[in-house]
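Supplementary notes for students who missed Thursday's class. We covered one full example, reproduced here. Read the sequence, then the structure, then the short commentary at the end.
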Amino acid sequence: MNACPNVRHLLVLPHLRVQNANAVSSPLTHGFPAITAFMGLMCALERKARSNGLDVHFEAVGVVCHGHQEMVNDGYVKTLRLTRNPVDKDGGTAAIVEEGRIHLEISLVLAARSATWRDEPEQANDDASRLAELLATMRVAGGTLLPPASLRMQHRHRPHVVHLTGNEDQQQAAFFKLRRHLLPGFALVARDDLLEQRWADLRAENPGVSQLEAWLSLVRAEWLYQAGDANADAGEPEDAKNKTKGEWVKPPRAGWIVPIPVGYGALGELHAPGTVANARDAHTPSRFVESLYSVGQWLSPHRLHMPEQLLWYADSQPDAGLYRCRNDYAALHEVADADFDFDFN
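Structure (token representation):
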């Protein structure tokens, strides 16, 4: 398994307003774009930057959400607000594929490697502005970027580069300053460890429990009935009698836990270029895949102690048929919590 790259520069694209992004992140989840969408955006931005003469290579991406509005009709069961497409040639309603849409305000933090930024740090912020201009011409998770809501707020939307150079204390100070600028908001991190722990707990009771059952058990909203005292005296006061009837309780959770897709798993062998009909690219090998699922957690940025806890990076293992995104929060948070006994700095 790969590890998060050594971070030297962070390109910060703060408070991006995205309209009509894709809210359906996989066949089983919705509510926020998949992390693979932001990974694809990172790769597309790098290609566009290099074609425009910018010396920059992106290695990982972090996402902080400041606001969201999913296009759904609230009720006992939520339904997507769908567009009304034109009728077909017979005048009937054309068949459509449901499309979930969401409006977002997000900040993107991209781990970058650049010889220019290393040798000429003053050039970095100029390049950041050029990268933001390139990003404005692109789609973000299928959505359209909007300009700042007002001129008064332009300083909040100004892209910049954070240099994680110098000694360890200077790097920590730079990151702590950045995380304050990302407030208020919530950062998405991976919690594969919670899924493994839940699966182990369920297998202790029932060895035949699958990982899918553990995943559903961990992310669903549960209410449990606690029976009252059947031996209570009938002559007790009314308040005591009510306690004997039992009650519905909501078990405590480990935080804001959500089901997320984290990449793709192969369904078959790799096909040679040009052998798959109607493929987009006739020069690249093709493979049929399905979504991989795990568990994520939304955390306030002030709870992050190092940039590696925020960043997602690609971990492709073609021989094993795995193409997934990883985040090292679960592996690092115990070490970080032992080293820091504070949240704000």
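Commentary. The radius of gyration is 24 Å. Residues 340-345 have pLDDT under 50 and may be disordered. If anything here is unclear, bring it to office hours.
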